[in-house]
Specification:
Number of helices: 1
CATH superfamily of the largest domain: Galactose-binding domain-like
CATH topology of the largest domain: Jelly Rolls
Mean pLDDT: 91
Number of domains: 2
Shape: elongated
CATH class of the largest domain: Mainly Beta
Strand content: over 45%
Distance between the termini: 28 Å
Order of helices and strands: HEEEEEEEEEEEEEEEEEEEEE
Low-confidence stretches: none
């Protein structure tokens, strides 16, 4: 629908104009939510100014990627829908840098990917989305040559071994997921002295490949006999980005008569619907 616009003076409106300019638009709004085509906005120094409710955002100087920190032209209750202008240029909406309150950075790296924002009373733009926290059960261990051994219950470490590693790849993640926390679960038989540690590691595409320990991604060391469900809550939610992979690195040490069995991990992620 093309919205008719008319300015009247001090006149009595004829029925036909009342129908065209008042009744019909109100009827349409009751039945539909439709936005006009997206107007293009180009980032300048991390800023754009909205002029309508739907915009396609382009990078400054057609750079391959650019950060968007602040959106002007908004007031409380204003709803904005944004997408990238070009499939080959990525716009990164930066959380908490300007007036964007998103929980984590969001990359618009495809023209079909949209994000909806609503302005609050402080002039900040908040995510207007459907999301849910999902818990994934992870037990596909990797432990070649590390003395951890596969068993029905999970991964096992027998007695008298020092600083032996195993890994749990988080191969269920998709781009845009947000990792919140995880629990390592299993059972320890402690007769002498055992320790069990686990941390979340990002494997990063580079030459050479690098790894990064995720802040808050380490559990409290397990040293006692009995079953365990040790949780690590990330210092800040970790947004899954292109060219990163994630893995839980497990390190176990056992004394005489000790053993450890790790069933797996329960990983909580936030996934946009």
């Amino acid at each position: 629908m093309t919205w008719p616009i008319k300015t009247w003076g001090s006149v009595v409106l004829p029925a036909a104009e009342m129908n065209e300019y008042v009744r019909d638009p109100l009827t349409f709004l009751k039945e539909n939510i439709v936005l006009d085509e997206a107007d293009e906005l180009t980032i300048a120094g991390g800023v754009v100014t909205a002029t309508k409710s739907y915009h396609a955002i382009d990078t400054q100087d057609d750079d391959p990627t650019d950060d968007l920190d602040t959106i002007g032209g908004v007031a409380e209750g204003r709803i904005l829908t944004l997408r990238a202008k070009h499939i080959d240029r990525t716009v990164v909406l930066k959380n908490g840098t300007g007036n964007l309150i998103l929980g984590a950075d969001i990359s618009l790296d495809d023209v079909s990917k949209h994000v909806a924002l609503i302005c609050d009373s402080a002039g900040n733009l908040n995510l207007l989305y459907s999301a849910r926290d999902v818990t994934f059960l992870v037990n596909a261990f990797q432990y070649p040559g590390t003395d951890w051994t596969p068993k029905l219950e999970g991964a096992g470490l027998v007695q008298s071994l020092t600083a032996k590693k195993a890994w749990l790849p988080l191969n269920f993640l998709k781009i845009g997921d947000v990792v919140i926390s995880y629990k390592l679960v299993g059972d320890a038989v402690e007769v002498d002295t055992l320790t069990l540690d686990c941390k979340l590691v990002s494997v990063n595409l580079a030459d050479p490949i690098t790894t990064t320990d995720i802040p808050g991604g380490g559990i409290t060391q397990i040293t006692a006999d009995g079953d365990f469900s040790s949780e690590a809550v990330l210092t800040a939610p970790e947004v899954v980005m292109v060219a990163n992979q994630y893995v839980l690195e497990i390190v176990g040490t056992t004394g005489t008569g000790d053993s450890i069995t790790v069933i797996g991990a329960e990983v909580v992620i936030r996934r946009l619907a």
